[in-house]
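Structure (tokenized):
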């Protein structure tokens, strides 16, 4: 009995030729990555050195995040290549198992969904040769670490041990703050992580990541704006797809969907309605890091909570320059205040600051008499409550900047290092779709997620800087603003390399 398979491209071929302990394969839909991993398991099983009984024994776990996806996608792909009538009966009683016995090959494959605590316990009790993690972007790093502990344990050393052991994984493109691109070196380690947490995301020498080319590539005009998509001449597995496969599936899809599933670019998928329909990446994101204007205060908007965020900005000749974002995870107000103070000193020495925060931050919690504003003052940071917490006014304050032109230039320009803000503008910060039959409806408030916190901070800063007053009363200020010289270049290079670093996520 033979298996007729040829890697559908140079990336999948390199993936199979590697003997790294952990191998990750990222690609677009239709690129053949899942089939490659299934065949790779069988190939390694056939290369296992025979044991004392002459059998090449291996045991594998195939992991998916949910049971429905395991059945309809992962197991289906496996049985397409290893059908029951040829390779032996598949056991559909949990845990789903396929025991393949062909010639001297004795290969046991256990399929596990890790959406229940008992399923994780099953994984932690297995003695395995290897693990295949299907769609790894849905699997937390802790599960990956657990998988690495269970491989290399079958066959036992008294029976000769495994010839090769390890973890293989495939995925569509994840978010930039996912463990995969961070460990692959495609995204920076967030600055707010502790040293111990950061060490967990440094790629070991025994790990390798492989990235397939996109199925299509964007077509851009002279100004860099995407006008359409064309087939990628180096796309893999196209010989196993219909000629119209990719052009057909992108019809009616959002740009973020195409970016992730077809172009194989890092990004997030959103099923909601973007809050800022007027945001245009080519217009509102600077091509190079922005330079703060000397002599003009830097406004910092702050959102509190366990996902605190701060956004640095300046109002220069009527234009909002968004200079930097600071986004933390699971961090209390005291720790974030200290982080913010150090970040201000390190990245903007010599500047004066105006801090505006969530007005709710001046209220005491029921369990604590200290408010976030008091905690900031203890850290030496004087912050004021933003003039409004009305979400409509806050959102309109930002929208006003997005639609404004100053001397022929956009009235809102964001530093390319503000990746969380940018991804929020691109659709991550959205109104959640409501499950209403017969109609397409959305919530009247933006969904609370990892993008909403820095966007709240941005809104507080711009409202504190005068945008909400302009909306509600018109500009009634008699105070002469500080004006930067007309020759000031917001895209000039900094004298230090600090602004080339990507901001923390």
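Design, position by position:
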């Amino acid at each position: 009995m033979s298996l007729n398979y040829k890697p559908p491209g140079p990336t999948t071929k390199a993936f199979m030729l590697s003997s790294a302990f952990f191998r990750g394969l990222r690609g677009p839909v239709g690129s053949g990555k899942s089939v490659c991993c299934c065949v790779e398991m069988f190939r390694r099983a056939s290369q296992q050195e025979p044991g004392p009984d002459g059998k090449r024994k291996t045991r594998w776990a195939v992991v998916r995040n949910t049971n429905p996806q395991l059945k309809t996608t992962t197991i289906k792909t496996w049985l397409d290549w290893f059908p029951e009538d040829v390779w032996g009966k598949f056991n559909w009683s949990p845990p789903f198992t396929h025991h393949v016995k062909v010639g001297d090959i004795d290969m046991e494959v256990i399929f596990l969904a890790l959406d229940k605590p008992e399923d994780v316990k099953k994984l932690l009790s297995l003695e395995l040769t290897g693990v295949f993690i299907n769609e790894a972007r849905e699997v937390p790093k802790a599960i990956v670490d657990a998988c690495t502990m269970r491989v290399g344990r079958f066959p036992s050393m008294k029976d000769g041990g495994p010839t090769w052991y390890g973890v293989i994984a495939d995925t569509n493109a994840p978010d930039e703050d996912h463990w995969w691109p961070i460990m692959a070196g495609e995204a920076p380690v967030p600055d707010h992580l502790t040293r111990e947490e950061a060490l967990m995301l440094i790629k070991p020498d025994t790990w390798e990541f492989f990235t397939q080319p996109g199925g299509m590539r964007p077509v851009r005009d002279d100004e860099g704006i995407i006008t359409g998509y064309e087939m990628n001449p180096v796309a893999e597995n196209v010989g196993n797809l219909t000629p119209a496969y990719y052009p057909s599936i992108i019809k009616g899809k959002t740009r973020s969907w195409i970016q992730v599933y077809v172009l194989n670019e890092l990004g997030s998928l959103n099923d909601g309605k973007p809050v800022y329909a007027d945001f245009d990446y080519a217009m509102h994101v600077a091509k190079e890091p922005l330079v703060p204007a000397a002599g003009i205060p830097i406004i910092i908007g702050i959102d509190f909570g366990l996902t605190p965020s701060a956004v640095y900005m300046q109002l220069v000749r009527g234009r909002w320059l968004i200079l930097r974002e600071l986004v933390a995870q699971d961090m209390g107000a005291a720790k974030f205040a200290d982080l913010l103070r150090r970040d201000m000193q390190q990245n903007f020495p010599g500047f004066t600051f105006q801090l505006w925060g969530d007005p709710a931050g001046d209220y005491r919690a029921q369990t604590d008499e200290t408010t976030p504003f008091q905690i900031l003052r203890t850290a030496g940071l004087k912050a004021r409550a933003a003039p409004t917490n009305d979400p409509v006014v806050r959102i309109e304050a930002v929208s006003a900047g997005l639609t404004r032109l100053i001397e022929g230039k956009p009235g809102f320009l964001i530093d390319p290092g503000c990746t969380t803000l940018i991804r929020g503008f691109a659709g991550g910060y959205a109104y959640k779709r409501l499950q209403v039959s017969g109609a397409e409806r959305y919530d009247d408030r933006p969904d609370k997620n990892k993008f909403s916190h820095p966007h709240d901070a941005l809104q507080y800063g711009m409202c504190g800087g005068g945008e909400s007053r302009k909306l509600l009363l018109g500009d009634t200020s008699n105070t002469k603003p500080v004006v930067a010289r007309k020759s000031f270049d917001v895209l000039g290079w900094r004298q230090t390399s600090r602004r080339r670093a990507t901001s923390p996520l």
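Reviewer-requested clarification: The first strand starts at residue 22 and ends at 26. The chain has three domains: 10-211, 216-271, 281-500.
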